[in-house]
Amino acid sequence: MSQVAGAKADIPLLITEDSRYWYRQGKRFDDQECYAEAVACYDRALINSPNAYWIWYNKGCALRELGEYETAVASFKEASALRPNDYWAYYNQACILIEDLDQFEDAIATLNQALAIRPNDYWAYFRRGDAKRHLKRYEDAISDYDQALSIRPNDYWAWLRRGDACRHLKRYENAINSYEQAQAIHPQDFWSYYKLADTFRYTEDFAAALKNYQKAIEIKPNDEYAWYNCACCAARIGDISLAMEYLESTLLINPNFQESLKNDPDLVVIRDRGLLGDLLREINCLN
């Protein structure tokens, strides 16, 4: 009996070059999240079956789990070459290219191939929209998010990312609508409230921004940025007492915000009234 280096002792590996055997062993290691051992088994299987789609495909999945992203993409490309009409090898390549390698142009080309196979696939449109958004091709990204939403109209992430793209184009009303759609789908998710609040700040609707930052804090009470932005909005609408409460909470979570307080134009009214000194002294004594 022999074992692949690092294999768990409860999975013996018989000395054999049978590809099916090594493939099955690789799958067993995958199931136990022993990805290095799984890759070693798939490599043994490929010795006698170099044209086996599923071996290359599962090797790509295991390599991604190991963080070997370039090699994972190469494995999925081998799988795609063997089955050019199989959607999943293209899709998994694209996910790695977007999420792990920041190779967005290559991801778009790969997703184009996936969509040629599945022209009504939500995920391919959504991922391609993400790749275009990263490339600052916001118009094209919105088009892909709209395609995704035509297939899954109640998808939180497509609405959220559509809002991001609209906001980058300064289409604030469209962004607000998209974030509100996301909120309606997942009313307890932090990001739709936070991003909606940011958008209201861009339109100088500080009261609406404050309301959404407050909701974000309810969901994620230790987020110092939400507390700080509440302070800025409260100062903008003239509620100095509330702004000071939010600033104190911000500094208790993260004292490093002290420098921002000294220069942020949203807080000029507080600085002009000489209110920062006592607060900073109090926080520094606590720390």
What's the SSE blueprint?
Layout: H1 19-31, H2 35-48, H3 53-65, H4 69-82, H5 87-99, H6 104-117, H7 122-134, H8 138-151, H9 156-168, H10 172-185, H11 190-202, H12 206-219, H13 224-236, H14 240-253, H15 258-263, H16 268-272, H17 276-286
Helix pairs in contact: 1-2, 1-3, 2-3, 3-4, 4-5, 5-6, 5-7, 6-7, 7-8, 8-9, 9-10, 9-11, 10-11, 11-12, 12-13, 13-14
Rounded to the nearest angstrom, the radius of gyration is: 26 Å
Largest sheet: none
Runs in which pLDDT lies below 50 for 5 or more consecutive residues are 1-16
> Distance between termini?
61 Å
What's the helical proportion of residues?
over 70%
What does this structure look like?
This protein is an all-alpha fold. It contains 17 helices and no strands. Helix 9 runs parallel beside helix 11 and helix 11 runs antiparallel to helix 12. The chain is elongated and about 80 Å long. It comes from Fischerella thermalis JSC-11. This is Tetratricopeptide TPR_1 repeat-containing protein.
Short note summarizing the structure:
Helix content is 74%, strand content 0%.
